[in-house]
Amino acid sequence: MKKLLIRGAVLVNPVREIQECGEPLDLLAVDGRIVAQGIGLPDEDAQVIEASGLCCAPGLVDMHVHLRDPGQTQKEDVESGCRAAAAGGVTSLACMPNTTPACDSPETIAYIVEKARSASARVYPVAAITHSLLGEKMTDFEALKAAGAVAVSDDGRPVPTAGQMEQAMIHASRLGLKVLSHCEELSLTRGGIMNEGEVSRRLQVPGLCRGAEEIATAREIALAAATGCPVHICHVSTQGSVALLRDARRRGVPVTGETAPHYFSLTDSLLEKRDADYRMNPPLRTRDDVLAVIEGLCDGTLSAIATDHAPHTPGDKADFLRAPNGAVGLETSLAVGITYLVKPGYLTLPQLMEKMSAQPAALLGIPGGSLIPGSPADLVLFDPEETWTVDPDRLHGKSRNTPFKGMTLTGRVKYTVLGGAVVYSDR
């Protein structure tokens, strides 16, 4: 029998009916599950973490991560990505299918599942909707689910036609698979590499118009309304997309959405540096978009915060104009949430944990997101007041392309616990 006692932490429970921070309590886990909360719990035969001054919350659940494994392991692999996850308090993650080969077969799903058995986070594969992400022949959803997939998506390559997406939504819904949609109308992107607007014009750089995201978002909402099949919109970045989702949800359309930390904290003004670490897709937008995304998180329009963790080597990112899109985010997401959402008073800590743990777990249909006895002992302990400066060279994954480099953030992960075992410690 393995016991872990966390002594004297402020418990942050995001479960909707509780949703509060209480007085410091002890939390006891036995054989990988939470069994009790209280004062003065016995520590006999238990590993003890003295957690005075720390918050204890369910481990973060990141539903949008690129592990680059198989095929691009110079950027990241299952082990290194999970090591970065643990350092950021992430205990469960969904990995996207744009690997090499694409995650479009039971064999590739099985490969990821097997590699993840010894990793420091739980890994849930997202399978491709179409073979090789080419938008042509649909994959075998049933076989992919049997192999371990929890959702389907063509990720950075949007499903090209409404008819294909309709069929994908209907089939996935029957099987209990979540459909995750990268919303981008490719006919409108025109080779853009950053937000189309004042900054792109000043830099004389091709821009990505917000209409490309918003038109595609509107398509997925229309399909969900017509079929009754749920769809989840990935990495929402524009004021218009937030408004479309808000209206749809008010009408009862089965659509949910996520955003990423950089969309509620950073703007396209950073591209003035001509540094490709600030390039991602969707791109950083304007201050008005940032405020709209924050409002969407506050009023429930946006259900989840996910990182879209996208590692690239320094060489990949060396050329501002030609570099691939993407930024790493697993190790900074909690601190960015505290700095830009909790400290200004937009969300409470339990509300932040609902967006970063409970809701993502519920959307994917996986365990996690609760401190209630019987729940998995997947936990993050953090100091909500500690400030730290993001140093790319001290990140735990393979890549260093963080848009938060050099920034001072508030909130530092001190321990991450997976199944009752400490997988990360900063003490």
Write the layout of secondary structure elements.
Layout: E1 3-13, E2 20-30, E3 33-38, E4 46-50, E5 55-58, E6 60-65, H1 78-87, E7 90-95, H2 106-116, E8 122-127, H3 141-147, E9 151-152, H4 162-175, E10 178-181, E11 194-195, H5 198-203, E12 207-208, H6 210-227, E13 231-233, H7 239-250, E14 255-259, H8 287-298, E15 304-305, H9 333-342, H10 349-364, E16 379-389, E17 408-418, E18 421-425
Parallel strand pairs: 1-4, 1-5, 6-7, 7-8, 8-9, 9-10, 10-13, 11-12, 13-14, 14-15
Antiparallel strand pairs: 1-2, 2-3, 5-16, 16-17, 17-18
Helix pairs in contact: 2-3, 4-6, 6-7, 7-8
In brief:
The chain is an alpha/beta fold. It is built from 10 helices and 18 strands.
